[in-house]
């Protein structure tokens, strides 16, 4: 992608008052929804240039390079913008688990038939993710 095409893509996006846009990560080959996080212009540019997903951490107020400490990286296959321009869909190749709880994805609580159920178990100990 050239700088001009990145800038054109950015100009189509509607960022919130904090300069952020919602981003949903989806496994490119299975369609599995992995997680939702936030991105700012800087993280979008880095993601498009490096093809490795970088988010913006609201709690730490800085760029969050997915997998930087855990090794569980997301490689970008394609970035899509929704019809309203306020949500990104990142088609990714997830290396390992996406969730800090050690699960493949972050959507593991479900409300089914009046009950809250856990639909997936951790695939690895979360402490091992961050070498604690």
Automatic annotation (TrEMBL):
What is this protein's gene name?
Answer: hisI
> Belongs to which family?
Belongs to the PRA-CH family. In the N-terminal section; belongs to the PRA-CH family.
Q: What is this protein called?
A: Phosphoribosyl-AMP cyclohydrolase
The molecular function terms of the Gene Ontology recorded here are: magnesium ion binding; phosphoribosyl-AMP cyclohydrolase activity; phosphoribosyl-ATP diphosphatase activity; zinc ion binding
UniProt catalytic activity: 1-(5-phospho-beta-D-ribosyl)-5'-AMP + H2O = 1-(5-phospho-beta-D-ribosyl)-5-[(5-phospho-beta-D-ribosylamino)methylideneamino]imidazole-4-carboxamide; 1-(5-phospho-beta-D-ribosyl)-ATP + H2O = 1-(5-phospho-beta-D-ribosyl)-5'-AMP + diphosphate + H(+)
Biological role stated in the UniProt entry = Catalyzes the hydrolysis of the adenine ring of phosphoribosyl-AMP.
* Listed GO biological process terms: L-histidine biosynthetic process
Give the superkingdom in one word. Bacteria
Supply the source organism for this entry: Commensalibacter papalotli (ex Servin-Garciduenas et al. 2014)
What's a GO cellular component annotated to this UniProt protein? cytoplasm
Q: Does the keyword Magnesium apply?
A: yes
**What are the residue boundaries of the Phosphoribosyl-AMP cyclohydrolase domain, all occurrences included?**
35-108
Pathway named in the protein's UniProt entry: Amino-acid biosynthesis; L-histidine biosynthesis; L-histidine from 5-phospho-alpha-D-ribose 1-diphosphate: step 2/9; Amino-acid biosynthesis; L-histidine biosynthesis; L-histidine from 5-phospho-alpha-D-ribose 1-diphosphate: step 3/9
Matching entries from PANTHER family are given as: HISTIDINE BIOSYNTHESIS BIFUNCTIONAL PROTEIN, HISTIDINE BIOSYNTHESIS BIFUNCTIONAL PROTEIN HIS7
Its Enzyme Commission number? 3.5.4.19
């Amino acid at each position: 992608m050239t700088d001009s095409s990145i800038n054109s893509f950015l100009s189509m996006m509607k960022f919130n008052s904090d300069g952020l846009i919602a981003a949903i990560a989806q496994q490119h080959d299975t369609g599995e929804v992995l997680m939702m996080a936030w991105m700012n212009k800087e993280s979008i540019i880095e993601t498009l240039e490096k093809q490795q997903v970088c988010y913006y951490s609201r709690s730490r107020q800085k760029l969050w390079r997915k997998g930087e400490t855990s090794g569980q990286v997301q490689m970008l296959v394609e970035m899509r913008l929704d019809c309203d321009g306020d949500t990104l869909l990142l088609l990714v190749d997830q290396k390992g688990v996406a969730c800090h709880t050690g699960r493949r994805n972050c959507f593991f609580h479900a409300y089914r038939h009046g009950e809250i159920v856990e639909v997936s178990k951790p695939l690895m100990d979360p402490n091992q993710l961050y070498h604690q």
